[in-house]
Write a structure and sequence with these properties.
Blueprint: E1 5-9, E2 15-19, E3 28-32, E4 35-38, H1 39-46, E5 57-59, E6 64-67, E7 79-80, E8 86-91, E9 102-107, E10 118-119, H2 131-136
């Protein structure tokens, strides 16, 4: 089987994930994996998520967070962009068990070989968005539509990476 994705250094930030071959629009390309934590466990381990400017935590649902620091796969290296070519979708378990929900990354347009995969992290912090926090969570995507920060207004529903 041909590898579709390659993780390597990124011009956006740190590591990134790149297409090894062409990928069509609407394809599910990878599941975001890691250890399942409750929100309380994540808060205890990492704080409120606002102080580091970097995280591998992904809000799965009202009960759980995926911690890709533990048992994570290369999906954790997909960088944020204000003009993304992918999106993250939470797929609810057919059984209704929130522990069985999963996050998948899907393309929103065709991807060329060698192109870096990105999605909008949609980070919502429950603390005031101070100038210091905006700088800490600054966006490096380089898009003409760049907002300058990974943070989203609190008025939007919680979703995405913390």
């Amino acid at each position: 089987m041909t590898r579709r994705l390659i993780a390597r250094r990124s011009p956006i930030h740190g590591n990134g994930v790149f297409a090894a071959s062409a990928i069509a629009r609407g394809e599910e390309i990878i599941q975001y994996k890691g250890r399942l934590l409750t929100h309380a466990e994540a808060d205890e381990r990492y704080g409120d998520g606002g102080e580091t400017g970097h995280t591998f935590l992904f809000t799965l649902n009202d009960s759980y967070i995926i911690d890709a620091n533990q048992g994570g796969n290369s999906a954790r290296w997909i960088n944020h962009s204000c003009a993304p070519n992918c999106r993250a979708l939470v797929e609810e378990s057919a059984s209704g068990d929130p522990r069985r929900d999963k996050v998948v990354i899907e393309t929103i347009r065709a991807i060329k070989p060698g192109e870096e995969l990105t999605y909008d992290y949609g980070i919502v912090l429950e603390v005031p968005h101070t100038a210091r926090l905006k700088k800490l969570w600054r966006c490096l995507c380089g898009s003409p539509r760049c907002t300058g920060t990974l943070l989203k207004p609190k008025s939007k529903p919680k979703s995405g990476r913390l």
